DNA sequence: ATATCGATTATCT
DNA sequence: GATAATCGATATG
């Protein structure tokens, strides 16, 4: 075996994961974003067995019709309809002709708001994630941190790793394991949360609505203000 | 390490 | 017709 690994890159995950209730999401995007850190995104197959699990380590809040950076800013359209619906549903958008990004709707029905998933820490199903990302892995036990980071560090990357598309996942209920894509808690406690301006936007770029777990190596982009 | 750029298409002006 | 909640590749310090 190898020596000199300060920490194994993967913590294997045999504890049970409990779905989050809709009331968790039916709050302000700021609150939901902060409390989503440390929770687990799950992709389940037909057999209800989790195939893919990954810890949520970086998110951004989008506030709705008053937030110029939000897709809800122009008011309800067919694209953003899920954001105006009830909380706890997947809002998936396609961007730059290349990438699908995953959000969860917040607030009460009729009031827009969402949290964008920006980075995950893979827990199980790493080989499938690597296949989905088109990254060759010789021997799964020899995975290095730098390879793992490329799987789910960034909104487009994590979408691809989890096979998220608008046709497949937009509007699906993320509180329901039967949806195939859902969010749960496994008892993990986050230590330190950091807050910075959001990434990659041109409007309302100064608002500090990006939340991430301090010192987590899977966080995307700048780790300083 | 940071900077710049091309890819590629749904959505809106 | 312009833009975009991104990524990966390339160039340069």
Structural write-up:
It is a single chain. The chain is of the alpha+beta class and 225 residues long. The protein has a single domain (18-213), classed as Roll (3-methyladenine DNA Glycosylase, Chain A). It is built from 7 helices and 9 strands, in the order βααββαβββααααβββ. The protein has helices at residues 22-25, 29-36, 81-84, 126-133, 145-152, 155-161, 166-169, and strands at residues 18-19, 40-44, 50-62, 90-95, 99-105, 114-124, 181-185, 193-196, 210-213. Strands 1, 2, 3, 4, 5, 6, 7, 8 and 9 form a 9-stranded antiparallel sheet that branches. It is globular. It starts with 17 loop residues before the first strand and ends in a 12-residue tail after the last strand. Mean pLDDT is 91; it is low at 1-11. The structure holds a DNA duplex (13 and 13 nucleotides).
Distance separating the two termini = 40 Å
- What's the CATH superfamily, by name? Methylpurine-DNA glycosylase (MPG)
Mean pLDDT: 91
Total strand count, please?
Answer: 9
Features:
3-methyladenine DNA Glycosylase, Chain A; 25% strand; single chain; alpha+beta; 9-stranded antiparallel beta sheet; 7 helices; 225 residues; disordered N terminus; DNA-binding
């Amino acid at each position: 075996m190898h020596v000199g690994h300060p920490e194994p890159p993967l913590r294997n995950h045999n504890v049970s994961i409990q779905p989050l209730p809709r009331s968790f999401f039916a709050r302000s995007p700021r609150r939901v974003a902060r409390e989503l850190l440390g929770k687990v995104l799950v992709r389940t197959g037909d057999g209800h067995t989790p195939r893919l699990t990954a810890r949520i380590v970086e998110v951004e809040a989008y506030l709705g019709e008053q937030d110029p950076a939000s897709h809800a800013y122009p008011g309800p359209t067919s694209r953003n309809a899920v954001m105006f619906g009830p909380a706890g549903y997947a809002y998936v958008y396609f961007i730059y002709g290349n990438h699908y990004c995953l959000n969860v709707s917040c607030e009460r029905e009729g009031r827009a708001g969402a949290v964008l998933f920006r980075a995950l820490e893979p827990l199980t199903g790493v080989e499938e994630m690597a296949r989905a990302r088109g990254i060759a892995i010789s021997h799964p036990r020899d995975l290095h941190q730098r390879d793992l980071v490329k799987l789910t560090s960034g909104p487009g990357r994590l979408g691809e790793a989890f096979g998220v598309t608008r046709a497949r996942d937009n509007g699906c209920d993320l509180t329901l394991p039967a949806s195939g894509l859902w969010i749960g808690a496994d008892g993990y406690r986050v230590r330190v949360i950091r807050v910075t301006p959001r990434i990659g936007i041109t409007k309302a770029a100064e608002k500090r609505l990006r939340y991430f777990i301090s010192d987590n190596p899977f966080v995307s982009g700048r780790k300083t203000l």
